[in-house]
Amino acid sequence: MRAVGFLLVLVLSGVCRAGDDEPVQDIDRTIRVEPSYSAPTQYYALLLLGPERQTRVWFVVDGDDLYVDRNGDGDLGGEDERFRAPKNGDLTEGLLLSSKRWAVPGLGAKGRYSEVEVRFALLNKDWRPKSTASNRRSMLDFMESIAATVDPQLSSIALTIDGSVKQQTTNSTFSTSPESAPVYCMDAPWTLGVLEHGFAHVLWNEPVDQKVIVSVGNPGVSPHLFSFITYDSLPDGVKPRIDVEWPPSSDGSSAPTTTLTALDPC
After folding, report:
1. Tell me, what's the pLDDT at 181?
2. In this predicted model, which residue has the larger pLDDT, 108 or 46?
3. Contacts (Cβ under 8 Å, ≥6 apart) of 232
4. Which residues of 232-261 are buried (b: 16+ CB within 10 A; e: fewer)?
């Protein structure tokens, strides 16, 4: 693939609808009951489920514990709403200072949402990639972008809808307060999105590998958030496609166009 700038046109083979926009300030962020936390800092995320965003589920990371408002009533004090992560130990030399994973049986009373998995990793701001790393430049830019961030981390929430459709948030960050927590949406009408990961995939004007990640799913209410449907969960005949229009070459010849369907090699 040519390592130059290009214009992307996103197309979905199949039917999807975009979700309605809703101002962040209009989202109800009330947590009626919170438990007595043990860690110095808690990390919050809010998940809205359903076409009308009718179910609100809070996730709160408290050290090795994860609290999940499984029934969406705003009370995190239920006996079945606290989960303990397996002990992995702290990391000191790599990018990750700690990495945790929790498995949650399900959300809601009707059993529609199952196989819930939450991942949470604190990042080491002092880490730098090896001088021989192929993605060194993009990773150095990523490390610079988080330099001023307090407790930078990567996190994700994944679940299965109605026993078959798997949906997952892009790697993003939980927040240290309910007021600033990211607001994700799932199980709503689909739209297209270019996924933004914590590890930025940057398009450089030099001969390095390029990567564009496109999927189908639901944008979050907070900016730059997206919850994608895994490709193996999409109906037959429904695949994201990109049309890549390259700039004219130096000899003035017309710009070529490349069409790629999701999972096609570049």
Report:
1. 92
2. 46
3. 166
4. eebeeebbbbbebebeeeeeeeeeeeeebe
